[in-house]
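Q: How do we represent a protein-ligand complex in a form that can be generated token by token?
A: Start from the inputs.
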Amino acid sequence: MPSQAIDNARIIAKALGIQGATSNTLSYQLSIQRSVETEGVGLHTAVRSRIRLVPAPPDTGIVFRRVDLDNFEIEAHGRNVARVSYATSLMKNGVLLSTTEHLLAALYSCGIDNVYVEINALELPILDGSAQPFMDLLDRAGIRQLRRRRRYLKVVKPLEISEGGRRIGIYPADEFRVRCYIDFPHPMIGQQETEIVVTRETFSRELAPARTFTFTEDIDRLRAMGLIRGGSLENAIVLTPDGLLEGSLRFPNEFSRHKALDLIGDLALIGLPLQALVVAHKAGHALHTRLVSKLLAEPSHWIETTETVPAESSARTVRETSPVHAD
Ligand SMILES: [Zn+2]
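Then emit the structure tokens for the protein with zinc ion bound:
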């Protein structure tokens, strides 16, 4: 672990007066300490973009600013969800912002409640296809605790959506936990499941390095749809019919881990930290964001609370992610 990350973990633990602090035990809102930036190409547009994370005051939320469009602001919130297929896009007054999920997964898992994300193009950089470069960026940014209580969205009644063989549900739980099941008829994938209690530490260790993936047989079709123009072996795992086109995996079940990462990034659009279990079964961005919209539209299923979870109940949480089965 880089020393900056250890420092950040210590800052959080110190702020709480306990060791092993998790994002669900935070009483006060967080922002970042200082502005940081990075740049790279967009996965779908291949357009080079630069992003800059800037500290923001309490109750701002995560707000994107298109600096190429007069600082037009788009809040990372379910009401701004637009066209969603192979990436999650936000749209407000016709202004689009694409592929938000990996950065949002990093911010949400780290408990960063308030930050401006300045960007000079319509798509976030894909970098290495995982959330690791964004975690490194957040390590450089540091954490600032703000003098405003953190409000959680606590689910009190289950909500489920299904569509063919795919489904997603959200259930009452003290901590923020996700479970993701996938099943791809491919010798490297098969059935995989990842379950994790989401904290800065677990996300950083278990999910952030997991990269997005694509199949060689889909590449021509996706390109014809105007997608993955910036895709390359530097930013995605590419699967041939019987193996990997190049390189090796970072985890045997890197695929379900990446799906869990994507899910967390989409859940960030709830706009508040979650106290809930989310179970996704062969779901994708479209179902994730439908769940977010449906939850926000059903206020009888949740309450807002400043109550935090006792640290001891968050400590027993991590179940090792492992392949359920792979042929
Ligand atoms: Zn992804």
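The chain has one domain: 3-325. Helices lie at 3-16, 101-109, 132-141, 200-207, 216-224, 254-267, 285-297, 311-315.
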